[in-house]
Amino acid sequence: MHEPVPPFPTEIFGRLGAVIDEYADALKVPRDLAAATALSAASVAVGTAVKLDSGPARLQHGNLWIAYIGPTGTGKDTAGEQMFDPLRAREAEYVRQYNEELAEYEKAHRVWKIHHSVWEKRFKTAIEANKKFTDSEPEEPRRPRLRKLLTTDFTLEAVIKLLHSSPRGILAHQGELVGFLRSMNQYKNGKGSDRALWSDMWNCLPIRKDRATNEERLYVPRPFVSLYGGIQPALLDELDDERSREDGFVYRFLPCFPDRRPTEIPRKIKRSAEKQWNATVEKLFALEPDEDGNPRIAKLDRAAQKEFKRFFTDNAKDVDALDEDDPRRGAWVKLSLYWSRLALVIHLLRWASADRQVDNPMSELVVDGDSALAASILVDDYFKPHLAKVSAVLLAAQAQRLKDRALRYLRAHRGEWTGTRDICHGLNTFKKETEEALSELLDDNLVEFEAKQHHGQTWPRWRVEGN
After folding, report:
1. 311-351, pLDDT tens digit by residue?
2. Beta bridge partners of 459
3. CA distance 462 to 270
4. What is the pLDDT of residues 430-447, one digit of tens each?
5. Distance between CA atoms of 44 and 431, rounded to whole angstroms?
6. Does the pTM of the predicted model rise above 0.85?
7. CA distance 72 to 258
8. Is the residue at 171 inside a domain?
9. SS3 375
10. Do 101 and 147 contact (CB within 8 A), yes or no?
Protein backbone atom coordinates (compact mmCIF):
# COMPACT_ATOMS: atom_id res chain seq x y z
CA MET A 1 0.00 0.00 0.00
CA HIS A 2 1.18 3.51 -0.77
CA GLU A 3 1.44 6.30 1.75
CA PRO A 4 -1.53 8.71 1.88
CA VAL A 5 -0.94 11.69 -0.39
CA PRO A 6 -1.63 15.33 0.55
CA PRO A 7 -4.55 17.22 -1.00
CA PHE A 8 -3.89 20.08 -3.39
CA PRO A 9 -2.69 23.15 -1.43
CA THR A 10 -5.16 25.68 -2.84
CA GLU A 11 -3.91 28.31 -0.38
CA ILE A 12 -0.97 28.92 -2.74
CA PHE A 13 -3.39 30.83 -5.00
CA GLY A 14 -4.08 33.48 -2.38
CA ARG A 15 -7.67 34.70 -2.31
CA LEU A 16 -8.44 32.61 -5.42
CA GLY A 17 -7.92 29.48 -3.31
CA ALA A 18 -11.31 30.00 -1.65
CA VAL A 19 -12.94 30.16 -5.08
CA ILE A 20 -11.40 26.84 -6.14
CA ASP A 21 -12.42 25.30 -2.81
CA GLU A 22 -15.99 26.47 -3.45
CA TYR A 23 -16.05 24.80 -6.86
CA ALA A 24 -14.73 21.56 -5.33
CA ASP A 25 -17.20 21.67 -2.44
CA ALA A 26 -20.18 22.47 -4.68
CA LEU A 27 -19.35 19.82 -7.27
CA LYS A 28 -18.39 17.30 -4.54
CA VAL A 29 -15.08 16.47 -6.17
CA PRO A 30 -11.58 16.43 -4.65
CA ARG A 31 -10.13 19.93 -4.66
CA ASP A 32 -7.22 18.40 -6.59
CA LEU A 33 -9.59 18.09 -9.53
CA ALA A 34 -10.88 21.65 -9.29
CA ALA A 35 -7.32 22.99 -8.92
CA ALA A 36 -5.96 20.91 -11.81
CA THR A 37 -8.63 22.16 -14.20
CA ALA A 38 -8.16 25.73 -12.93
CA LEU A 39 -4.42 25.54 -13.65
CA SER A 40 -5.14 24.11 -17.11
CA ALA A 41 -7.62 26.86 -17.94
CA ALA A 42 -5.30 29.59 -16.64
CA SER A 43 -2.32 28.27 -18.58
CA VAL A 44 -4.13 28.50 -21.93
CA ALA A 45 -5.59 31.92 -21.04
CA VAL A 46 -2.02 33.20 -20.67
CA GLY A 47 -0.83 31.17 -23.66
CA THR A 48 2.00 32.60 -25.72
CA ALA A 49 1.49 36.12 -24.38
CA VAL A 50 4.07 35.66 -21.60
CA LYS A 51 7.02 33.41 -20.85
CA LEU A 52 9.30 33.28 -17.81
CA ASP A 53 13.04 33.82 -17.82
CA SER A 54 14.30 31.96 -14.75
CA GLY A 55 17.96 31.95 -15.77
CA PRO A 56 20.37 31.34 -18.67
CA ALA A 57 18.68 29.23 -21.38
CA ARG A 58 15.64 28.76 -19.14
CA LEU A 59 12.83 30.53 -20.98
CA GLN A 60 9.58 28.71 -20.30
CA HIS A 61 5.99 29.19 -21.42
CA GLY A 62 3.23 28.23 -18.99
CA ASN A 63 1.88 25.18 -20.82
CA LEU A 64 0.99 22.30 -18.49
CA TRP A 65 0.29 18.62 -19.10
CA ILE A 66 -1.81 17.28 -16.24
CA ALA A 67 -3.14 13.75 -15.75
CA TYR A 68 -5.94 13.36 -13.21
CA ILE A 69 -5.95 9.78 -11.94
CA GLY A 70 -9.16 8.47 -10.47
CA PRO A 71 -11.78 5.77 -10.99
CA THR A 72 -14.98 6.25 -12.93
CA GLY A 73 -17.45 8.40 -11.01
CA THR A 74 -14.97 10.80 -9.40
CA GLY A 75 -16.21 13.76 -11.43
CA LYS A 76 -13.24 14.04 -13.80
CA ASP A 77 -15.47 15.52 -16.51
CA THR A 78 -17.80 17.53 -14.24
CA ALA A 79 -15.15 19.85 -12.82
CA GLY A 80 -13.68 20.44 -16.26
CA GLU A 81 -17.05 21.42 -17.64
CA GLN A 82 -17.40 24.09 -14.93
CA MET A 83 -13.84 25.42 -14.68
CA PHE A 84 -13.55 25.66 -18.48
CA ASP A 85 -16.71 27.81 -18.78
CA PRO A 86 -14.73 31.08 -19.17
CA LEU A 87 -12.85 29.51 -22.08
CA ARG A 88 -16.11 28.50 -23.71
CA ALA A 89 -17.46 32.02 -23.26
CA ARG A 90 -14.34 33.39 -24.94
CA GLU A 91 -14.76 30.87 -27.77
CA ALA A 92 -18.35 32.07 -28.26
CA GLU A 93 -16.99 35.60 -28.66
CA TYR A 94 -14.47 34.28 -31.20
CA VAL A 95 -17.37 32.77 -33.18
CA ARG A 96 -19.23 36.10 -33.15
CA GLN A 97 -16.13 37.94 -34.34
CA TYR A 98 -15.48 35.31 -36.99
CA ASN A 99 -19.01 35.58 -38.38
CA GLU A 100 -18.63 39.36 -38.67
CA GLU A 101 -15.22 39.01 -40.32
CA LEU A 102 -16.55 36.29 -42.65
CA ALA A 103 -19.41 38.55 -43.79
CA GLU A 104 -16.93 41.35 -44.52
CA TYR A 105 -14.63 38.93 -46.29
CA GLU A 106 -17.40 37.55 -48.53
CA LYS A 107 -18.43 41.10 -49.46
CA ALA A 108 -14.83 42.07 -50.20
CA HIS A 109 -14.26 38.85 -52.14
CA ARG A 110 -17.22 39.53 -54.43
CA VAL A 111 -15.80 42.97 -55.18
CA TRP A 112 -12.35 41.45 -55.71
CA LYS A 113 -13.70 38.92 -58.21
CA ILE A 114 -15.20 41.73 -60.30
CA HIS A 115 -11.98 43.77 -60.20
CA HIS A 116 -9.87 40.70 -60.90
CA SER A 117 -12.04 39.75 -63.88
CA VAL A 118 -11.59 43.25 -65.34
CA TRP A 119 -7.84 43.06 -64.68
CA GLU A 120 -7.58 39.68 -66.42
CA LYS A 121 -9.39 40.98 -69.51
CA ARG A 122 -7.12 44.03 -69.71
CA PHE A 123 -4.06 41.84 -69.17
CA LYS A 124 -5.16 39.44 -71.93
CA THR A 125 -5.89 42.31 -74.32
CA ALA A 126 -2.46 43.84 -73.67
CA ILE A 127 -0.70 40.52 -74.27
CA GLU A 128 -2.59 39.91 -77.50
CA ALA A 129 -1.73 43.43 -78.68
CA ASN A 130 1.88 42.93 -77.61
CA LYS A 131 1.61 46.00 -75.40
CA LYS A 132 3.26 46.64 -72.08
CA PHE A 133 0.95 46.06 -69.12
CA THR A 134 1.94 47.51 -65.73
CA ASP A 135 -1.28 47.35 -63.71
CA SER A 136 -0.85 45.41 -60.47
CA GLU A 137 -3.01 42.35 -59.97
CA PRO A 138 -5.72 42.99 -57.35
CA GLU A 139 -4.82 41.26 -54.10
CA GLU A 140 -7.29 38.61 -53.04
CA PRO A 141 -8.76 39.16 -49.56
CA ARG A 142 -7.61 36.66 -46.95
CA ARG A 143 -10.31 34.42 -45.54
CA PRO A 144 -10.59 34.83 -41.74
CA ARG A 145 -9.73 31.93 -39.44
CA LEU A 146 -11.87 30.83 -36.54
CA ARG A 147 -9.87 30.86 -33.33
CA LYS A 148 -10.37 28.09 -30.78
CA LEU A 149 -9.27 27.43 -27.22
CA LEU A 150 -10.59 23.94 -26.49
CA THR A 151 -10.46 20.66 -28.37
CA THR A 152 -11.09 17.01 -27.62
CA ASP A 153 -9.49 15.91 -30.90
CA PHE A 154 -5.95 14.82 -30.09
CA THR A 155 -4.97 13.82 -33.64
CA LEU A 156 -1.86 15.71 -34.63
CA GLU A 157 -3.34 17.09 -37.86
CA ALA A 158 -6.31 18.56 -36.01
CA VAL A 159 -4.17 20.07 -33.24
CA ILE A 160 -1.71 21.71 -35.64
CA LYS A 161 -4.53 23.15 -37.76
CA LEU A 162 -6.04 24.65 -34.61
CA LEU A 163 -2.69 26.08 -33.54
CA HIS A 164 -2.24 27.62 -36.97
CA SER A 165 -5.48 29.55 -36.56
CA SER A 166 -5.12 30.01 -32.77
CA PRO A 167 -1.50 31.08 -32.20
CA ARG A 168 -2.13 32.05 -28.56
CA GLY A 169 -2.61 28.37 -27.74
CA ILE A 170 -5.19 25.68 -27.05
CA LEU A 171 -6.20 23.29 -24.29
CA ALA A 172 -6.61 19.70 -25.45
CA HIS A 173 -8.66 17.68 -22.98
CA GLN A 174 -10.06 14.16 -22.94
CA GLY A 175 -11.81 11.98 -20.40
CA GLU A 176 -9.21 9.24 -20.82
CA LEU A 177 -5.56 9.84 -21.70
CA VAL A 178 -5.07 6.19 -22.60
CA GLY A 179 -7.03 6.75 -25.80
CA PHE A 180 -4.69 9.60 -26.72
CA LEU A 181 -1.60 7.48 -26.19
CA ARG A 182 -3.01 4.52 -28.09
CA SER A 183 -3.97 6.65 -31.09
CA MET A 184 -0.81 8.75 -31.27
CA ASN A 185 0.66 6.91 -34.25
CA GLN A 186 -2.49 5.49 -35.78
CA TYR A 187 -1.81 6.78 -39.30
CA LYS A 188 1.54 5.04 -39.63
CA ASN A 189 0.95 1.82 -37.74
CA GLY A 190 3.02 2.92 -34.80
CA LYS A 191 5.96 4.17 -36.90
CA GLY A 192 5.08 7.84 -37.17
CA SER A 193 6.74 10.87 -35.68
CA ASP A 194 3.74 11.95 -33.60
CA ARG A 195 5.47 11.38 -30.26
CA ALA A 196 8.43 13.50 -31.31
CA LEU A 197 6.18 16.33 -32.47
CA TRP A 198 4.13 16.19 -29.26
CA SER A 199 7.40 16.37 -27.32
CA ASP A 200 8.35 19.44 -29.36
CA MET A 201 5.00 20.98 -28.49
CA TRP A 202 5.64 20.32 -24.79
CA ASN A 203 8.78 22.43 -25.24
CA CYS A 204 6.94 24.98 -27.47
CA LEU A 205 9.45 24.34 -30.25
CA PRO A 206 8.53 25.27 -33.83
CA ILE A 207 6.71 22.55 -35.77
CA ARG A 208 5.83 22.06 -39.41
CA LYS A 209 3.24 19.64 -40.73
CA ASP A 210 3.46 18.34 -44.30
CA ARG A 211 1.34 15.18 -44.06
CA ALA A 212 -2.11 16.48 -45.00
CA THR A 213 -2.97 16.30 -48.71
CA ASN A 214 -4.49 19.20 -50.63
CA GLU A 215 -3.73 21.48 -47.70
CA GLU A 216 -1.32 24.36 -47.26
CA ARG A 217 1.88 23.56 -45.42
CA LEU A 218 1.33 24.46 -41.79
CA TYR A 219 4.08 26.07 -39.73
CA VAL A 220 3.59 27.01 -36.08
CA PRO A 221 6.50 28.92 -34.52
CA ARG A 222 5.25 28.63 -30.92
CA PRO A 223 2.91 25.62 -30.58
CA PHE A 224 1.37 26.21 -27.16
CA VAL A 225 -0.71 23.22 -26.07
CA SER A 226 -1.80 22.47 -22.53
CA LEU A 227 -3.04 18.92 -22.01
CA TYR A 228 -5.55 17.75 -19.44
CA GLY A 229 -7.02 14.28 -19.18
CA GLY A 230 -8.17 11.59 -16.83
CA ILE A 231 -7.01 8.04 -16.44
CA GLN A 232 -8.34 5.18 -14.39
CA PRO A 233 -5.84 3.71 -11.91
CA ALA A 234 -6.31 0.24 -13.38
CA LEU A 235 -5.06 1.56 -16.75
CA LEU A 236 -2.19 3.58 -15.34
CA ASP A 237 0.49 1.12 -16.35
CA GLU A 238 -0.43 1.68 -20.02
CA LEU A 239 1.32 5.06 -19.71
CA ASP A 240 4.53 3.30 -18.75
CA ASP A 241 5.44 1.22 -21.77
CA GLU A 242 9.07 0.69 -22.77
CA ARG A 243 8.98 3.38 -25.42
CA SER A 244 7.67 5.96 -22.94
CA ARG A 245 10.54 5.19 -20.61
CA GLU A 246 13.02 5.55 -23.47
CA ASP A 247 11.81 8.89 -24.83
CA GLY A 248 10.56 10.29 -21.49
CA PHE A 249 7.13 11.05 -22.92
CA VAL A 250 5.20 9.84 -19.88
CA TYR A 251 7.33 12.00 -17.57
CA ARG A 252 5.92 15.16 -19.14
CA PHE A 253 2.65 14.68 -17.24
CA LEU A 254 2.04 16.11 -13.79
CA PRO A 255 -0.13 13.62 -11.87
CA CYS A 256 -3.04 14.39 -9.57
CA PHE A 257 -3.80 11.12 -7.78
CA PRO A 258 -5.95 11.97 -4.74
CA ASP A 259 -7.06 9.45 -2.14
CA ARG A 260 -10.47 10.90 -1.30
CA ARG A 261 -13.55 9.96 -3.29
CA PRO A 262 -16.72 12.08 -3.46
CA THR A 263 -19.87 10.66 -1.88
CA GLU A 264 -22.22 13.66 -1.64
CA ILE A 265 -24.77 15.14 -4.02
CA PRO A 266 -23.47 18.21 -5.90
CA ARG A 267 -25.01 21.63 -5.32
CA LYS A 268 -25.05 24.89 -7.25
CA ILE A 269 -21.82 26.89 -7.24
CA LYS A 270 -22.09 30.25 -5.51
CA ARG A 271 -22.56 33.02 -8.04
CA SER A 272 -19.87 35.14 -6.39
CA ALA A 273 -17.32 32.37 -6.96
CA GLU A 274 -18.35 31.97 -10.59
CA LYS A 275 -18.07 35.72 -11.19
CA GLN A 276 -14.63 35.89 -9.61
CA TRP A 277 -13.33 32.92 -11.59
CA ASN A 278 -14.70 34.31 -14.86
CA ALA A 279 -13.19 37.74 -14.13
CA THR A 280 -9.83 36.18 -13.26
CA VAL A 281 -9.60 34.28 -16.53
CA GLU A 282 -10.69 37.31 -18.54
CA LYS A 283 -7.94 39.35 -16.91
CA LEU A 284 -5.41 36.74 -18.01
CA PHE A 285 -6.67 37.09 -21.58
CA ALA A 286 -5.94 40.83 -21.31
CA LEU A 287 -2.23 40.01 -21.29
CA GLU A 288 -0.92 40.63 -24.78
CA PRO A 289 2.34 39.79 -26.59
CA ASP A 290 4.57 42.64 -27.71
CA GLU A 291 3.96 44.74 -30.81
CA ASP A 292 5.79 42.17 -32.97
CA GLY A 293 3.68 39.30 -31.68
CA ASN A 294 6.46 37.87 -29.52
CA PRO A 295 5.86 36.80 -25.91
CA ARG A 296 6.47 39.29 -23.12
CA ILE A 297 9.28 38.16 -20.84
CA ALA A 298 8.58 37.82 -17.12
CA LYS A 299 11.49 37.90 -14.68
CA LEU A 300 12.11 36.58 -11.17
CA ASP A 301 12.70 39.16 -8.47
CA ARG A 302 15.59 38.65 -6.05
CA ALA A 303 13.60 36.60 -3.54
CA ALA A 304 12.19 34.42 -6.32
CA GLN A 305 15.67 33.87 -7.76
CA LYS A 306 16.89 32.74 -4.36
CA GLU A 307 13.97 30.34 -3.97
CA PHE A 308 14.47 28.90 -7.45
CA LYS A 309 18.16 28.29 -6.78
CA ARG A 310 17.29 26.48 -3.54
CA PHE A 311 14.63 24.37 -5.27
CA PHE A 312 16.87 23.51 -8.22
CA THR A 313 19.75 22.43 -5.96
CA ASP A 314 17.54 20.34 -3.66
CA ASN A 315 15.70 18.74 -6.57
CA ALA A 316 19.00 17.73 -8.18
CA LYS A 317 19.99 16.05 -4.90
CA ASP A 318 16.63 14.26 -4.78
CA VAL A 319 17.16 12.96 -8.32
CA ASP A 320 20.69 11.73 -7.51
CA ALA A 321 19.33 9.87 -4.46
CA LEU A 322 16.92 7.81 -6.59
CA ASP A 323 17.88 4.44 -8.05
CA GLU A 324 18.60 4.44 -11.78
CA ASP A 325 15.51 2.29 -12.47
CA ASP A 326 13.16 4.27 -10.22
CA PRO A 327 10.17 5.44 -12.31
CA ARG A 328 10.26 8.81 -10.51
CA ARG A 329 13.71 9.70 -11.79
CA GLY A 330 12.69 10.85 -15.28
CA ALA A 331 9.75 12.82 -13.92
CA TRP A 332 11.74 14.60 -11.23
CA VAL A 333 14.32 15.74 -13.77
CA LYS A 334 11.56 17.64 -15.58
CA LEU A 335 10.21 19.17 -12.38
CA SER A 336 12.80 21.96 -12.53
CA LEU A 337 11.26 23.02 -15.85
CA TYR A 338 7.76 22.65 -14.46
CA TRP A 339 8.74 24.82 -11.51
CA SER A 340 9.20 27.77 -13.88
CA ARG A 341 5.90 27.11 -15.64
CA LEU A 342 3.99 26.75 -12.39
CA ALA A 343 5.62 29.84 -10.89
CA LEU A 344 4.53 31.87 -13.93
CA VAL A 345 0.93 30.61 -13.95
CA ILE A 346 0.53 30.88 -10.16
CA HIS A 347 1.92 34.41 -10.12
CA LEU A 348 -0.41 35.56 -12.89
CA LEU A 349 -3.40 33.84 -11.24
CA ARG A 350 -2.63 35.60 -7.96
CA TRP A 351 -2.28 38.90 -9.83
CA ALA A 352 -5.46 38.41 -11.90
CA SER A 353 -7.57 37.54 -8.85
CA ALA A 354 -6.35 40.50 -6.76
CA ASP A 355 -8.71 43.34 -5.93
CA ARG A 356 -6.33 46.13 -6.87
CA GLN A 357 -6.51 47.63 -10.35
CA VAL A 358 -3.41 47.97 -12.50
CA ASP A 359 -3.38 50.36 -15.45
CA ASN A 360 -0.63 48.45 -17.24
CA PRO A 361 -0.80 44.69 -16.65
CA MET A 362 2.65 44.30 -18.21
CA SER A 363 4.12 46.05 -15.16
CA GLU A 364 3.19 42.95 -13.15
CA LEU A 365 5.52 40.64 -15.10
CA VAL A 366 7.94 40.19 -12.22
CA VAL A 367 7.41 36.92 -10.37
CA ASP A 368 7.77 37.59 -6.65
CA GLY A 369 9.10 35.46 -3.83
CA ASP A 370 5.61 34.43 -2.67
CA SER A 371 4.74 32.99 -6.08
CA ALA A 372 8.12 31.27 -6.27
CA LEU A 373 7.61 29.71 -2.84
CA ALA A 374 4.11 28.63 -3.93
CA ALA A 375 5.62 26.83 -6.94
CA SER A 376 8.11 25.06 -4.67
CA ILE A 377 5.36 24.00 -2.27
CA LEU A 378 3.27 22.68 -5.14
CA VAL A 379 6.14 20.65 -6.59
CA ASP A 380 7.78 19.43 -3.37
CA ASP A 381 4.76 18.88 -1.15
CA TYR A 382 2.17 17.89 -3.73
CA PHE A 383 3.42 16.61 -7.07
CA LYS A 384 6.37 14.64 -5.69
CA PRO A 385 4.17 12.61 -3.28
CA HIS A 386 1.68 12.03 -6.08
CA LEU A 387 4.50 10.95 -8.39
CA ALA A 388 5.61 8.54 -5.64
CA LYS A 389 2.08 7.11 -5.56
CA VAL A 390 2.10 6.66 -9.33
CA SER A 391 5.55 5.10 -9.06
CA ALA A 392 4.32 2.59 -6.48
CA VAL A 393 1.45 1.57 -8.75
CA LEU A 394 3.75 1.23 -11.76
CA LEU A 395 6.35 -0.79 -9.84
CA ALA A 396 3.64 -3.10 -8.53
CA ALA A 397 2.31 -3.56 -12.08
CA GLN A 398 5.81 -4.27 -13.40
CA ALA A 399 6.42 -6.79 -10.63
CA GLN A 400 3.11 -8.53 -11.36
CA ARG A 401 3.91 -8.74 -15.07
CA LEU A 402 7.27 -10.32 -14.29
CA LYS A 403 5.64 -12.82 -11.92
CA ASP A 404 3.15 -13.75 -14.64
CA ARG A 405 5.92 -14.19 -17.19
CA ALA A 406 8.02 -16.31 -14.82
CA LEU A 407 5.04 -18.52 -14.01
CA ARG A 408 4.25 -19.05 -17.69
CA TYR A 409 7.90 -19.83 -18.37
CA LEU A 410 8.04 -22.50 -15.67
CA ARG A 411 4.73 -24.00 -16.75
CA ALA A 412 6.11 -24.30 -20.26
CA HIS A 413 8.90 -26.50 -18.83
CA ARG A 414 6.30 -28.98 -17.53
CA GLY A 415 7.63 -29.63 -14.06
CA GLU A 416 11.35 -29.60 -14.89
CA TRP A 417 13.64 -27.99 -12.34
CA THR A 418 14.98 -24.77 -13.86
CA GLY A 419 17.82 -22.65 -12.50
CA THR A 420 17.52 -18.94 -11.76
CA ARG A 421 20.15 -18.11 -14.35
CA ASP A 422 18.26 -20.02 -17.06
CA ILE A 423 15.04 -18.23 -16.12
CA CYS A 424 16.78 -14.84 -16.35
CA HIS A 425 18.15 -15.79 -19.75
CA GLY A 426 14.78 -17.01 -20.98
CA LEU A 427 12.94 -13.90 -19.80
CA ASN A 428 15.77 -11.46 -20.61
CA THR A 429 15.61 -10.03 -17.08
CA PHE A 430 18.05 -9.12 -14.34
CA LYS A 431 18.82 -11.55 -11.54
CA LYS A 432 17.65 -9.37 -8.64
CA GLU A 433 14.18 -8.63 -10.01
CA THR A 434 13.74 -12.22 -11.18
CA GLU A 435 14.62 -13.60 -7.74
CA GLU A 436 12.13 -11.22 -6.13
CA ALA A 437 9.39 -12.37 -8.52
CA LEU A 438 10.17 -16.05 -7.91
CA SER A 439 10.25 -15.54 -4.14
CA GLU A 440 6.79 -13.97 -4.26
CA LEU A 441 5.51 -16.87 -6.35
CA LEU A 442 6.96 -19.22 -3.73
CA ASP A 443 5.20 -17.28 -0.95
CA ASP A 444 1.97 -17.66 -2.92
CA ASN A 445 2.56 -21.45 -3.14
CA LEU A 446 2.58 -21.29 -6.93
CA VAL A 447 6.09 -22.70 -7.42
CA GLU A 448 8.46 -25.12 -5.72
CA PHE A 449 12.05 -24.37 -4.81
CA GLU A 450 15.13 -26.44 -4.10
CA ALA A 451 18.77 -25.60 -3.47
CA LYS A 452 20.77 -28.05 -5.57
CA GLN A 453 24.32 -28.75 -4.39
CA HIS A 454 26.86 -29.18 -7.17
CA HIS A 455 30.66 -29.18 -6.78
CA GLY A 456 30.38 -27.41 -3.46
CA GLN A 457 28.09 -24.66 -4.78
CA THR A 458 24.41 -24.07 -4.22
CA TRP A 459 22.25 -23.70 -7.34
CA PRO A 460 18.69 -22.42 -6.76
CA ARG A 461 16.13 -24.22 -8.93
CA TRP A 462 12.43 -23.74 -9.50
CA ARG A 463 9.46 -25.56 -10.95
CA VAL A 464 5.69 -25.22 -11.01
CA GLU A 465 4.14 -26.97 -8.05
CA GLY A 466 2.21 -30.14 -8.83
CA ASN A 467 3.77 -30.90 -12.26
Report:
1. 999 999 999 998 877 777 888 888 989 999 999 999 999 99
2. 452
3. 64
4. 888 899 999 999 899 999
5. 47
6. yes
7. 13
8. yes
9. helix
10. no
